[in-house]
Amino acid sequence: MDNNISDAIGVIAQSADTVFILLGAILVLAMHAGFAFLEVGTVRHKNQVNALVKIITDFAFSAVAYFVIGYQVAYGTHFFVSAEALGANHGYELVKFFFLLTFAAAIPAIVSGGIAERGSFRPFLFASALIVAFVYPFFEGIIWNGNFGFQAWLEHTFGAQFHDFAGSVVVHAMGGWLALVAILLLGSRRGRKPGIAFAPSNIPFLALGSWVLIVGWFGFNVMSAQTLDGISGLVAVNSLMAMVGGTIIALIVGKNDPGFIHNGPLAGLVAVCAGSDLMHPVGAFIVGGVAGGLFVVIYTKLQRSAKVDDVLGVWPLHGLCGVWGGIAAGIFGQQAMGGLGGVSIMAQLIGTLAGIIIAVIGGVLVYGIVNKMSSLRLSQEDEFHGADLAIHKIGSTNSDK
Question: Which segments cross the bilayer (predicted)?
Fold first, then answer.
């Protein structure tokens, strides 16, 4: 009788874990709609269709690349076994793959915003597949699966592993620094002059994208526990406070600019990912506020740059705020700062630097090789007419009566 009860409890627990991580996967999948509408609202009208198409097709190519190659690179597990084997434990491993896929596919979605309006379509799809198959899972496996002994070395040397609970560095900094490589390779949009920005085409769409990302982010962070017994209200409230801090500081520093106000909460959420399970909510608020201010200041400076034409500001938002998040986990995660402890600032610095190095080297290799095979940049004529008509043969709206 006791064994039957124990077995039944085990089945229920496994089922609950499967549902838990499935809900997380669905929430993070929904974030890709947020990526899409954030880009749609920011780019010029003639590139809105392309923004929508890129996000969904990038996700599709990423899913295939991660299923066939990437997941095995990161975790040493493949899915080329019987359906019976895959369905074991209520298919938990399959749903875990789905959840982690939504993280992996965020990398091309981040890059998409940086290279918008002049990036070619199919070459970047191919490049995205290569990154999700090899570059991202290489670093993911090192940090989240202990591959190559890097984490063990950090723990032995500094007393703690590199801590990145939900991907400030593994996902966001990786995506932001990969985007920077692509941005520098492409160069600026034609007609863009330093200090004179192209205005966003649709603030309501931009705001919608921000809100969808904000809501989905609670799945991104909270469900990173991956099992129901690991769920923590601390992660949820820290995410909330970082989002609020990013919003308030972006409002103040950005002088009421709606673009900054709607990216400020995203900057805060990027930064809190790494230490959201360790920090005190007050610490999370400070981390988010610093990130919101950092985004506004650096993006404003980039607008005056002749070389770095980052359309959505993905390098400061994800690349720099992700780096800040990795370091901040080592500061505000300390018990002396109200956190739970168990982190090392040196391990955080080295782990963050490793992420930047792998992203930059991987980006140079992948984008460089693909660019030699087929140009990553639209022709001058196609860029002038806009990606919507040049690539998809249709505009985003039709005023015919």
Answer: 20-40, 52-74, 94-112, 124-145, 165-186, 198-219, 231-253, 260-278, 284-302, 314-333, 345-370
